[in-house]
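Hi team,

Filling in the usual template for the complex we talked about on Friday. All components are listed, including any nucleic acid strands or ligand strings, so the model treats them as one assembly.

SUBMITTER: L.P.
PURPOSE: interface mapping
COMPONENTS: two
RESIDUES: 658
SEQUENCES:
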Amino acid sequence: MTTIVESRRRLRLPSLGSAGSVLAPVVVALLVGAVVVAVTGNDPVSIYRTLAREAFGGADRVNATLAAATPLLFTGLAAAFAYRAGIFTVGVEGSFVAGGLATAAIGSHMDGVVPALGIAALLVVATFVGLVVAVLPAVLRAYARVDEVVTTLMFNFIASGLASWSVQAFFQERGQANSATAMVADAVRLPELAPPGQTNVGLLVALAAVAVYWWWTRSTTLGFELTTVGSAPRFAVAQGLRTRLVVLVALLGAGAIGGLAGGVHTLGIVHRFTAGFSAGFGFTGIAIALLARFNPVGIVAAAILFGALNSAGTTAQLFIDLPIQIIDVLQGTVMVFAVAQFALPRLRKRQAVPVATT
Amino acid sequence: MIDALIASTIALTVALVPAAIGGAIHRLSGIVNIGLEGHMLIGALVGAVASAWSGSWLVGLVLAATAGAASGLLVNLVITRMRGNEIIVGLGFNIVALGVVGYILRAGMGVSGTLRPEGLRRLPTIDVPGVADVPVLGALLSGQSPMFWFCLVLVPATAWLLGNTPWGLQLRATGALEPAAVSLGLRSLAIRDGAGLVAGLLSALGGATLSLGNVGLFNENMIAGRGYVALAAFYFGRSWPLPTALACLLFGFFDALQIRLQTGVGASADLLSTLPYLAVVVILTATALRELRRGSRRMV
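RESULT (copied from the run log):
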């Protein structure tokens, strides 16, 4: 039967020039959310008001929002890093889980170490483990053009299956009903910035990582090549840019940042690895990167927006009986419409013949 | 023991096959459908509610298929007409579907996650006289649900439709080289919309098979990644109907084995659950190595 020609996937993102193109997905998401809320007989306006108050109304709420935004800053950055090069990784989730588990498994045996050294060592391990998860998809994509979407998607399931297996087989804390590792040593927990709030030094690490990304893409040769391969692949090949290296760096870099994110999440918030360690942070990161159009400031803004949704959703479900699933509706809708073109719908016209890019 | 394993393998395969065939059709038209999981979830919920409301499993299946067709078309319209990236749109849709279903269960129906609709009619079983008492063949062919027979017809029918009808040819042409198909006057976007509708419809039937099957209830986590396993299956089968269905059978067997082990030793069930995904990585790697050795290396 037919052989399938892998067409090169391209992101067609509307330019940043119009603020409308960035706001549109958020507006559509709020509308969809409002419809869902209204259908079940609640008042969308009062619910959105409650969410806003729970997200930003008071220092403790802002603290909770920033704590929730910290892992998203990393995963948004990881996605932006790869997508900027036109590489569609969905494997940040798997790297996040692997990095978090490795950190928890080792960190629980680190009583009495010098905090700074112990934390640095653990985060290096987490970064490395996250990178390892991405090695095979990266090599397959760079040297054999194997679709990275499928391999990274598969590796998410492989990583999470291996993680829960190894927790039960090796790291299970005694007396725990569900699978969870022991708590990490006090010495290696990331200090909180304003106790008792959960926001910790991890936020600063994340902001530093975003700053490095900003500098790296603007000021290094490889950073330039990364951007160019993503925005003009044929030009990049014609000019002899190191496209294969860019593909490797994009996938491995996204994995490494994802692993670091998991490590920081373990040491800063959860302090151990449990079932359901990642609340889909890797996928939310994709929505953040797309909404931000890979722009560093945009990543910070979008991560805070999604962090606000998560933290407000968590408390709102206690106060006003609002199922937290409404947050998934909002996040997923933003993701769908972040890549959609808000031009007049092309209902009858045939799609313009694209230049063959295979 | 063997009979029980065969029975649960078939039950799980029958839920996978429609979704995987739908995904394969969509894939042949040129679009990777990541949203199979979401369509299955919608089908499972609608099937359960409609079956209970009408008191008929057939109405349950029909309404589930209708809902799946609608969601499949809607998602595909965002991809074709609003030029949204298929991967991102699919991932986002899965998150939305899970969110909407979870929200409606809690806020609209007042249950947390599991719905046991009163009066739900499960899929009937069809006994084949004469075969029922034969040891293995009996477990294989007798006492199966109508969806089992539907799958047996669906796979060869799809292969025939794809290979021998204008629709199949146009669909494959659109997927193989869109510019050429368009230059011949094919409405490629409409063809893809049709394929998306079929993918949603079939996935929803797969989902409804789960909720109207043995247990007869709906749980928001009951799809549990099987949409992604279906995706793995049509990648494994390279979108050809028969190999895709055989991949579903293999993955259905892994799934049945995993569920069986879960009751005994929990840990190895987690390992088994990774097998379908490992299988896809292995086959993609093997295919790539073979092509590399042939020297058909292309530029990135």
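MY TAKE: Chain A touches chain B through 79 residues (CB under 8 Å). DSSP finds 13 helices and no strands in chain A.

Thanks, L.
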